[in-house]
Amino acid sequence: MEIIPIKELENYLSEMKNWFIEGNSITKNFVFPNFKEAINFVNKVANLAEEKNHHPDIKIFNYRNVTINLSTHSAGGVTHKDLELARLIEQFY
């Protein structure tokens, strides 16, 4: 898998709501009405990640906030695999 050049990545992210570049990854913060809905979202993302064999870093904080961080660790940055997973995650939100 090839890392996406920064300018190309910026173009992709301009079409995706609230995803941003953070170091060698892309990140988005999601906010839910309550803890249970945040956990349900995380479980859906976990199932999708297992299906795709591509696992994001997930952080839950302040009981209803979830941060998803995507990077292809073996490539050392963001690849099309990350963008595909980000688009699929968007469908759950």
Physical arrangement of strands within the biggest beta sheet:
1-2-4-3
Radius of gyration (CA) equals: 13 Å
Distance between the termini: 27 Å
CATH architecture: 2-Layer Sandwich
Structural class comes to alpha+beta
Description:
This protein has 93 residues and is an alpha+beta fold. It has one domain: Gyrase A, domain 2 (2-Layer Sandwich). Helices cover 41% and strands 23% of the residues. The chain contains three helices and four strands, in the order αββαββα. It has helices at residues 6-14, 35-52, 80-90; strands at residues 20-22, 25-31, 57-61, 65-70. The chain has a four-stranded antiparallel β-sheet. The model has no long low-confidence stretch (mean pLDDT 96).
What's the short version?
This protein is an alpha+beta fold and 93 residues long. The chain has helices spanning 6-14, 35-52, 80-90, and strands at residues 20-22, 25-31, 57-61, 65-70. The protein has one domain (6-90): Transcriptional coactivator/pterin dehydratase (Gyrase A, domain 2).
